[in-house]
Amino acid sequence: MIRLAVVGASGRMGRLVAEVVDGMPDAQVVQRIGSSDPPRFAEEVDAVVDVTLPHVSPEVVAAATTAGLPVLVGTSGWSGERVGSLRAGRADGAPPVLIVPNFSIGAVLAARFAEQAATWFESIEIVEAHHAGKADSPSGTAVATAERIAAARAELGPVAAPHTDQRARGQQVGSVPIHSLRLDGVQAKQDVLFGGSGELLTIRHETVSPAAYAAGIRLALAALPTLAGVTVGLEPLLFG
């Protein structure tokens, strides 16, 4: 039995994590902490789940690892640069940190497909849409996807993205323009568009219900005690 503290427990992801854990025979939420509350953990806690806000998440991770507790991060905002800083500042033997930009299995596969396509097209852009209450943009999933595209194209160079001086051209991550929409009636949706001579390839993933995240949450919680160091994404858990 793994006993969890959920930080950000009153938010939509915090409530979903608690709901998923309630259906797991080998996990239990024993402490609920708000995003604005100090991250202090009860003695019976075995691991921490962070589903707070981008500016709060690093404090939660630091508090959890200082307390010797593994932490599962489901908060957006963990760019490659931030993950690198976390890895560089870790002490030997520090508890594991698993950072998951998106708990949807379909989203993980879509990002993998985008990485594979990245070397075949020079013109690549991302359009992502989330519910109006999402606090950050671009989304963590879009940032992670763009970083993977950039890594896949390391030997080819940046994508072709004209007129980047214009604000409407989006925010560039790894040279890939990202356009963020925040709309009522939307759960989560991402299109990665690849333009080529005479063709357009679109890799689309859409979440229509929070139920899409349940399998990824269960997978991450089951794997967390077995990990070491800092792991990013569900892909290492799915494909090794």
Describe the model.
The chain is an alpha/beta fold and 240 residues long. The protein has helices at residues 12-22, 57-66, 80-88, 105-117, 140-152, 214-223, 235-239, and strands spanning 2-7, 27-33, 47-50, 71-73, 97-99, 123-130, 171-173, 176-182, 188-196, 199-207, 230-232. The strands form two sheets. A six-stranded parallel β-sheet has the order 2-1-3-4-5-11, sandwiched between helices. A hairpin with a 2-residue loop joins strand 7 (171-173) and strand 8 (176-182). The two termini are 24 Å apart.
Overall geometric form: globular
Task: Indicate how many domains the architecture comprises.
Answer: 2
What kind of sheet is the major sheet? 6 strands, parallel
Oligomeric nature of the chains = single chain
- What number is the mean pLDDT? 95
| Strand percentage | 25-35%
- Helix content class: 25-40%
The total strand number stands at: 11
CATH superfamily of the largest domain: NAD(P)-binding Rossmann-like Domain
In CATH, what is the class of the largest domain?
Alpha Beta
Unreliable spans: none
N-end to C-end Cα span: 24 Å
Number of helices: 7
Question: Which structural class best describes the helix and strand composition?
Answer: alpha/beta
And the CATH topology of the largest domain? Rossmann fold
The CATH architecture term of the largest domain is 3-Layer(aba) Sandwich
SSE order, as H and E? EHEEHEHEHEHEEEEHEH
